[in-house]
Predict the structure.
Amino acid sequence: MSNSNLFLYIGKPIKNDYGRIIGKVASFALTPDGKFDAVYVEFGDGQFTKQPMENLRFNGADVTFVTKIKTQAGSLCDHIPLIWRKDEALKDLLEKKKITPDVFQDLHNSFGTVLTQLKKDAQVIIDESAVEIERCRDEITSLSYAIANLEIEHEIGKVDEETYKTAFALLQETLKRASSEKTDYEMTKSKVSSVLLGDQSQVPKSTKIYAEHVINNSNDAASKLPEPPVVVYVKEIGKAGI
């Protein structure tokens, strides 16, 4: 994408992965050689921040803010198993006497340091996902009550049919987005948790295949998580018009 095309995005709304508008593009930061380095974003609450280019996707007329938790989770789920495999390969090399004990210990300590930090980062992602899941639950509950109250007011004739249909469609669409967002965070939390449960340093070497099994099947396990229910109120034909 050319520089001129990117500048055309200034003032454009920014949506998250679920279609919710969260802010707009304010400007760009460029390096001395003219490469785009960052995006200045004005969020909906008025907060003005500088975001790395990789945090946003520019596609046609749409600008999407990539969820930080999902991006970091994907990276961790790749790197943690890789460090495990390298450390296990290192142990095999020592057993085969292809490396000296000193070299083994030095590299083993390095891998251990990296793995410890990655596991801390993974726990942060798990905790942040849990917070987002709870936020989504609260939003789903609030939306369910909003729909119920709309139904009551429409039933007693205080909300006309056109207003009711518009409001009902808006609430249902928002409810679907919140449910989808909650499911995504649940899948992310499950995937990262599965990787940590497969930590080879916590199981005997004879059972280290367990870790690989957990990692390879984390996507399948996450995909089987039940989607949160979407509340739909059905009215008699002729009253609600739905």
